[in-house]
Amino acid sequence: MGISNLSPRTARHAVVLFGPQGQGSFNESGLLGARRAQAAGYAVDVHWVAGQSAAQRAEEMQALCSAGYALIVAHGGQGDGPVALLAPQFPRQAFAVTQGSLQAPNVARYEVLQEQSAFLAGVLAARLSRSQVVGHFSGEKVPPGLRGRAAYAHGLRAAGFAGPLITQFCGHQHQPDWARQCVQDMAVQTGLDVLFAMIDGGRPGVSAACREHGIAQIGNVLPWVERDPQVFIASAICDSGEAVLRAIADHGRGQLPLGGYRAFGLEEPALVRLDMADRVGSEDRAAIDDWAQRLLRGDVVLELVYDGPEHPLPALVPAGRGAAPGSPAAAKPLP
What we know:
- The structure is a single chain.
- By secondary structure, this protein is of the alpha/beta class.
- The chain folds into 2 domains: 12-112 and 240-264, Rossmann fold; 114-238 and 270-297, Response regulator (Rossmann fold, 3-Layer(aba) Sandwich).
- Helix content is 36%, strand content 20%.
- The protein has 10 helices and 12 strands.
- The chain has a 6-stranded parallel sheet, with helices on both faces.
- Helix 4 runs parallel beside helix 5 and helix 4 runs antiparallel to helix 10 (282-297).
- The longest helix has 16 residues, at 143-158.
């Protein structure tokens, strides 16, 4: 099969989401992007891939490469690994990876710049923390998550924060019990009072721990302040699903940048911004707007590498009370 430039009404597109079907805000955003593409007249099939390793994910995706899809869109940094394995095997297949870092002749990269809103989240956390201990929490160490953490740390420093940053990747995006245990441990051990959480299906566990310990949470991707205003002080908006739509639309116009890259950021506030709760004061809001303008003008060059310490993972707990990634009890719902 050759790399196709068929019209939108004849080309078939596959959108691949990683994780348990129907879980996670990042996947919710990707699914909405696929649905918007369908509404615009494109033929789009959504596929959920459950494997955790790159090899497992590639094995699940391999059948798509022989199924006649003009374009396969892997949503998220989790797509880098499997597409890196598949792209050389299927050089005539067009791929797009959103929020990733893979470069290959038959792969187009699309990114909505989460790191810009993550930087603003760091500025806000620095201004709001009373304990002068703030946190960051995420799941897998994929490139967009690492860049987001680094930008958050940069925002803290830019705002003059001198306290410790407690940061942890728990290893899994979709296990709420494990996420809850990790955040509880971070809270008890450090006394942090603001937490930036870049997590997907594990979000309910993070929010439960924040409620229990009085932590103000900053979310990401979706407008979490609207959904849970008691827990969320802000949300670093990143409409990553728009990257799915734009990749499909560009392919339909014959403008897919294979081997290239397209990015979208604060210049489009509908895609990237920091949403803040009503209880955030006018001075803090003005400061966030000022830093956003500095980013747009290019006065600030984001630092995208973090080389500081990481908080250790907690010890395992008995089965049924929350567990480490991969254990049978890990995916049980919160009580």
